[in-house]
Amino acid sequence: MKFFPMFLRMAERDVVIVGGGETAAQKARLMLKTEAHLSFVAAELEPELQALVSEGRAHHVTDEISESLFEGAALVFVCTEDEARDAEIYQIVRRAGALVNVVDRPDLCEATTPSLVDRDPLVVAIGTEGAAPVLARQIKTRLEEILEPKLGEFVAFGGRMRDAVAESVPREKRRPFWRWVYHETPRRLFASGAERAAFDTIKAAINAGGAPDAPGTGQVALLPVGALDPDLLTLRAVQRLQEADLVICTEPEFAPMLELARRDAARIVVGRDYGTEDWLLSDQRNVAMRAYDKGQRVVWLVPRRDAERAALGLPADLERVPAVRV
């Protein structure tokens, strides 16, 4: 590795952005996610940056560029959009001893900005050392699909509970406790929209001194399918497939969607692997319920026209997941 990945505490630290155009604004938007102090070094600022200065969220410096502007800075972005000028400023920043990033010039970067998946406080950074930013964005897109938008709230709650866990849960039970929180009932409740129930379940387990000893409760997610293109699956449908212990496909045409399922999940494709094409929905329901009773997570892909009939007799906590984006 030419660049070592790490996270820096930015609170109360100075970040200097040399430039006042759109590229500078892009870097400013990124740094505004942190608690750093921002300064723009430019003769003029585009309206978005000027607004930040007017609101007191950044400083505007019009002094001649010299080493003194960068002394003590945690990070400097150089984006004047003039290649020769950028190279000159790079040398000045280096002499000042600050980390520098010259936009679109990997050869003039002491630090690079990765593609970010932001679920604060959960943050995933993807970097390619400037070699393949398009690939980094592709990976970012896939991760955005996997990590639900509100996941940061769940992670933040877990962080607030760490002291309580340290006080109430014996040391040898803490790792199993956190595994249960992020892999079992609390995470599933939160992902299904039952945030308060998820938090209450965690608090109850802390008060009880650890995660429940009994196997986790099963789950059945019903996915009514109206189109066959896996690329059209909703985010939640993809998440349920990746969590499933068992996936039942009512029709062989749904099989391509299994490519998105967890690798070690059991799969039943009606008419291909199991039963016949006229295998009754009631028989499939029985298979789903046996897995549910064992504490397994089941995803049942059914034609949209059969969704209501399929739901009959399924658990009260059945999750109906929109399968395909419209």
From TrEMBL:
Boundaries of every Sirohaem synthase dimerisation domain copy: 151-205
Principal EC category: oxidoreductase
Pathway noted in the entry: Porphyrin-containing compound metabolism; siroheme biosynthesis; sirohydrochlorin from precorrin-2: step 1/1
Single Gene Ontology BP annotation: methylation
Enzyme Commission no: 1.3.1.76
Domain of life: Bacteria
GO molecular function: ferrochelatase activity; methyltransferase activity; precorrin-2 dehydrogenase activity
Pfam families found in the cross-reference section: CysG_dimeriser, NAD_binding_7, TP_methylase
Oxidoreductase is among the record's keywords: yes
Keywords for this protein: Methyltransferase, NAD, Oxidoreductase, Porphyrin biosynthesis, Transferase
Segments forming domain Tetrapyrrole methylase: 220-302
Catalytic activity: precorrin-2 + NAD(+) = sirohydrochlorin + NADH + 2 H(+)
Name of the protein described by the UniProt record: precorrin-2 dehydrogenase
Native species: Celeribacter neptunius
